[in-house]
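Inputs:
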Amino acid sequence: MNKSLLKSRRQFLQGTALSSVFLGFSLPVQAQPVSEELQQTLPDSMLKAGSNFSNYGQPSIYEKDIIRWISANPNVPGNGVSWTPLEELQGTITPNGLHYERHHNGVPDINPSSHEIMIDGLVDKPLTFSIDALKRYPQIRKICFIECGGNSNAGWRSAPIQSAAGYVHGLVSNAEWTGVPLRLLLNECGIQAEAKWAIAEAADGAALNVSLPIEKLLDDAILALYQNGERLRPENGYPVRLLLPGWEGIVNVKWLRQLKLVEQPAMTRDETAQYTDLLPTGKARQFSFTMQAKSLITSPSVGMTLPDNPGIYQVTGLAWSGNGKIRKVEVSADGGDTWVQAELSDPVLDKAFTRFSLPWQWQGQYAILQSRATDETGYQQPSRNTLISERGDNSFFHYNAIVSWEINEDGQISHIYV
Amino acid sequence: MNKSLLKSRRQFLQGTALSSVFLGFSLPVQAQPVSEELQQTLPDSMLKAGSNFSNYGQPSIYEKDIIRWISANPNVPGNGVSWTPLEELQGTITPNGLHYERHHNGVPDINPSSHEIMIDGLVDKPLTFSIDALKRYPQIRKICFIECGGNSNAGWRSAPIQSAAGYVHGLVSNAEWTGVPLRLLLNECGIQAEAKWAIAEAADGAALNVSLPIEKLLDDAILALYQNGERLRPENGYPVRLLLPGWEGIVNVKWLRQLKLVEQPAMTRDETAQYTDLLPTGKARQFSFTMQAKSLITSPSVGMTLPDNPGIYQVTGLAWSGNGKIRKVEVSADGGDTWVQAELSDPVLDKAFTRFSLPWQWQGQYAILQSRATDETGYQQPSRNTLISERGDNSFFHYNAIVSWEINEDGQISHIYV
C-alpha cells in the first residue's frame, strides 16, 4: 500500500463515523426524470414480432461474455479447471451452464443405459445398480455448495493476484442436487463390521479414486442424478455423482462407478501427492475434507471501477461453510478495524451459499472492503495472517482467509493483503 | 372407465389394507449381484481422455429429448407457449433452459444498454431507471413459481387429454429470482393519493399491458434482473421483468418498460377478452390474480408404463400455492376414497414448488393415483367435480383440480376423470 493511500485511510477513519458509511436503509439513486420524447417514442422491439419459441433456452447474446474461464494444463488432456464468474452472478443458485469444472482427464462420454454403480468389498452382498434401478429408490434434494479444495489457492502466493473475483475464488458453485441417499444402498449390500472406509472410483480416463470414511457415506451422502431440476450435466458427473455436502470437491466423485468397502484408506495419488498440505511442523494435513467457513464480496470487487456518480452502493457477496449454516457475515470498509453486520438473505440453508448485502455510502473516499463469515459452530473466517500463522506457507489447498478489496479515490478496485 | 377396471378397483379396495400399499419406509429394489466379469472390465470411458472444458455447459446428448414442447399459433408470429417437461425433472428448481414460455408476439431483442423503465402517471416525480441504475439498488431474491393463468386448461374439456403431464400442466416453473423491490422505486417517484392501480407495459411487439393494484406492487413485487443466479433469459423478460409472487403469469410482465400509475384499471385486452372466466351466474371472474393451491404427481404419470418388475415405486410430484406455503399433500391410490400424507421435502418455501413423495407398493393391481394439496391458509385443492360445480364449464383459466392417473394391471397409465 503506498503512502498517499495510507494517509487517505487515516483521514477517512478519523473523519467519518461508521454509521454514515454503512446505512441501515436505502436511498434513492440514479433515477432520471422522464422526458416527453421518451414518453412518445416506442422502442424498436415494439415495432415487430420477436423471435420464436425454443426447445431449450440459452442466455441473451448481450451476456455472451459471462462465461466460465478455463485454466487448463496443456500437457495433460482435460486436466484443469473452469471458473464460475461469481462477480457477475446474483442470488445463490449457480446456473448449470456456469457451474465450475475440475477434471483430471476431461469429461467422459458415458451412455447411461450401460452405466452401473458397483458396491463391493467388505459387504455381505456385492450389488450393482443401474441408473433405471436408482430411479426406483427414494430421492432427496439438497441445495448446497461444492468447492474445490484448491479454490482460492492464489491466496497462498506472496503477492496479491489481480484477477477477477471469480477467476480466483470461483471453483465453488451452489446448486439443488437430487438423488438417492447412499445409506439405503449400503444397507442393502450389508456393511461388514470391519468396513471403515470406501474407495470411490470414477469412470473417467483418470480413474480418479479417493478414500472416504464410512460414517460420512452413511450420514448425508447422496448419489446425485439431478442438478437444478434436470439430469446432471456431463461435466458435473453425468450420469451419476457422489455428493458429500460440505466436503471438498474431489471427494464428490463424478461419473461414479464403484464403491469398494475396505478397512483402511487406499492412500491414492489424490489423497497423498495432492489435496494435502505441508504444515510448519513438517506433518501434512491429510483427509481435511470439510471446507471451512468463507466469504467473498462479489460486488464491488477487484477489476471493477465504481461509477463516477458517487452515492449508495450495494455491497454484496456470498458466504458458505462446510460445517453448517452461516450465522453472520460482517463487513468492514476500513481494512478490518471496524465491522458492521450485513443482512443475510432468507432462507439461510445448511452448507449452502448465503447471500449477504448492505448499503454503503461511497463519496470518493479511500476504503478497504472486507467480509468475514461466522458459521453456526462459531467458527470465524480467519484473517490471512492468522491463516498463515497456523498453516505456514507451504500450502496449496483449503485457503479461506478474509479477502481485501482496496478502493482508491478514483473508484478503482485492487486486491491487497492487509 | 370401463367395467373390468371398475371391478378391479373394487377388488383392490376390498382386498388390500392401506398400510401395505403406502409404506412409511423404503425397501431394497432392483439391485443386481456383481459379476466377476463386471469387476474385471473397465468401461470405454476409462480408456481415453474425455472432452474439453467449456465456457458455458449444455445438457448431455443422451438427454436431448428433454425439451420444452412448443404449441404455437400459426397465424400470429410468436404467439403460443412452450411447456416445461415436469415429469422428466426432479427437485424443485426449473433449470433456465426449460422454464416455460408464454409469448403473445415472440421474444423481443432488447439491448440492455438502451432499455429504461419509466414510472409515470399519478406520481410526484416521473422517473426512468436504466439497467445500470437498477443494479445500484438493494436486490432481494425469491425462490417462487410462476404459473400461466391458462395452465392445465385441458382439464376444462369434457374428455381427459392423454398428453404427458408437462404438456398439460407444464406452464409453471420455479426459479430463484433476484432483483430490486419495486416499492423502493415507487416511493422514490412519490405515489399520489389517487393512485390505486398501475398499468404495466412490456416492450414486446404485442405491447402487452395489464392493470395491477398498487397494494401488490408495494408489497412483494420485484423488478427481477436475475434468474437462477444469471441474468434473465430473453424468453423470461431480459433485461428486466416484473415478478409478482403467487400471481398468474401474465401479470409478471416481461421486458417491462413502463408503469403508469392511475386511478382505475385500464380494461386492456388481456384483462377483459382474455384471462377472465365466465361463471354460471353470467358474471365473469376478472382480476383473479392469485394462483390457488395445486398439485400433480409427476412420476408415475400418464404415458409412462410401470416396469414389469413389480415392487416399490416412489410416487413423487410437485405442489404449489399462490397463497403461501404448502401445508400438506395427500396421495390416494384408490381414486380419492382414502388418503395418505406424503413427505414434503425441506425447506418448504412460500409460493414455491414443494416436492412431495412417498413409497408405493405396486404388485400389478389396478389403481387410481391422485394428489391433493392444502396450503397454509387451509385452502384445499378441489376435486374436478367441485371445481366445475363452482366455476361452471365456460372457463379456460385457473384450472387447479385434482389430477387422476389410472394404472391398469399391465402398468399402463392413463389420465381419467373420476
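Helices of chain A lie at 3-15, 18-21, 36-40, 131-134, 165-169, 182-189, 214-219, 384-391. Flag for discussion at group meeting.
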